[in-house]
Design brief:
The structure is a homodimer. With about 130 residues, chain A is α+β, with helices and mostly antiparallel strands. Chain A has a four-stranded mixed beta sheet, with helices on one face. The mean pLDDT of chain A is about 95. At the A-B interface, helix 1, strand 1, strand 2, strand 5 and strand 7 of A face helix 1, strand 1, strand 2, strand 5 and strand 7 of B. Strand 5 of chain A pairs antiparallel with strand 7 of chain B.
Chain lengths: ~130, ~130
């Protein structure tokens, strides 16, 4: 596919003053919300072209192909845009876990009696995947 | 419940430089992602106290109890926090539709052959709910 194939899609997206748009990644099979990240124009273009999730890392200031170091890639099944054109929702097939902590989902803590209680599924050992600190 | 009951929860949340945190609202029954909005400390406190979603309207610059004008309130079943402490995920019971356009979900457009195609479920007539423009 050429860039031209995505021009109409990308033109409808309202990037914020930093050139970014929030992206929610949801498990295609289970509906579980796995993570939240940001995209700039280039990462959205790359995601649409390859149908593999690519975000913009705000901390590292560069494109971030999800899973490039961990192998936990995200195959993109569909991409949705919200009513205001300023939030994306990806339906994905997640390899391994989405969260760098080793959890399947980044949202592994739930409010319970005034505390955040961990109840998320651990699917890998982060020291084995990223190397011990 | 007193404010004190939520101190530990709120202290773990990393609000951004504008004092806001993204909040994703997901249908408790179906897992459908319904909307995305922002919360400040006060709206999160109110949400946790009343277990009814309250956001911060960036456009209006004020607290926004979801459904206060439309009747389409969101009963909060659970609140989750992500690994970095800077994104919230609400599991909700949505009255009517979450989207001001009349759709059940704000994410009613899907990328399809280079265009955004509407495929979302319409659940109310916005002119009847909000009044014709």
């Amino acid at each position: 596919m050429t860039d031209t194939a995505h021009t109409e899609l990308i033109e409808a997206v309202r990037f914020d003053e930093k050139g970014l748009v929030p992206a929610i990644a949801q498990d295609h099979a289970t509906g579980e919300v796995l993570m939240f990240a940001w995209m700039n124009r280039e990462s959205l273009e790359k995601t649409l072209s390859e149908m593999r999730a690519c975000y913009w890392s705000r901390s590292r200031g560069k494109l971030w192909v999800k899973g490039e170091s961990s192998g936990h890639t995200q195959k993109v099944v569909s991409v949705r845009l919200d009513c205001d054109g300023d939030v994306l929702l990806l339906s994905i097939e997640q390899q391994g876990g989405a969260c760098h902590t080793g959890h399947r989902s980044c949202f592994y803590r739930v409010a319970d009696n005034g505390r955040w209680r961990e109840d998320g599924q651990k699917v890998f050992n982060k020291d084995e995947v990223y190397g011990a600190a």
